[in-house]
Amino acid sequence: MKFEIKKNKVVKFSIEDSYLENDMKVVDGDVDFFVSSWLLAPYDSDNLTLFPAEVRVDIKSKNFNLYLSHFFDIQFETDLNKDKWNSIELKRALLLNLYPQSRAFIVSTLASGGYGSINIPLDIHNFIK
């Protein structure tokens, strides 16, 4: 089930800071991290190789809450059977291949936004169910 990323676009990104509430003095050890991905219906029912896919990341911490919705156009080598569209195997492949780009966007944006170096999981195998 190989695919190529044709393009990607962040469609929604939000961050809510609690800087004024805690003056960033709290060492944030308690973080809720949620990541998911899925394939959407193909653009063209006659072309079952080109699909949009989405990765969502939701992070809730004492210092900030972050939400990202990141869309990708992905091209499979061959037609993807409908029974594979929601398979665990595909969800795993999507997360393992698409999440690193979403993570890079988040890390870069947080660093540029004055948050410094934030550790966001690289290995997401534990988040794949």
Gist?
The protein has 2 helices and 4 strands; from the N terminus they run E-H-E-E-E-H.
Tell me about this structure.
It is a single chain. The protein is 22% helix and 36% strand. The protein has one domain (3-127): Bacterial Protein-export protein SecB (Roll), CATH 3.10.420.10. The protein is α+β, with helices and mostly antiparallel strands. The two termini are 18 Å apart. A hairpin with a 3-residue loop joins strand 3 (50-60) and strand 4. The radius of gyration is 17 Å and the shape is elongated. A four-stranded antiparallel beta sheet has the order 1-4-3-2, with helices on one face.
Order of helices and strands: EHEEEH
CATH superfamily: SecB-like
CATH architecture: Roll
Q: What is the gyration radius calculated from CA atoms?
A: 17 Å
CATH first level: Alpha Beta
Strand order, largest beta sheet: 1-4-3-2
Strand content: 35-45%
How confident overall, as mean pLDDT?
A: 87
Overall morphology: elongated
Structural class of the secondary elements? Answer: alpha+beta
Low-confidence parts? none
Counting DSSP E segments of at least 2 residues, the number of strands comes to 4
Query: How many domains make up the 3D coordinates?
Result: 1
Query: What's the end-to-end separation, in Å?
Result: 18 Å
- Proportion of helical residues: 10-25%
User: CATH topology, anyone?
Assistant: Bacterial Protein-export protein SecB
Main sheet attributes: strand count, strand direction, barrel closure = 4 strands, antiparallel
Q: So how many helices?
A: 2
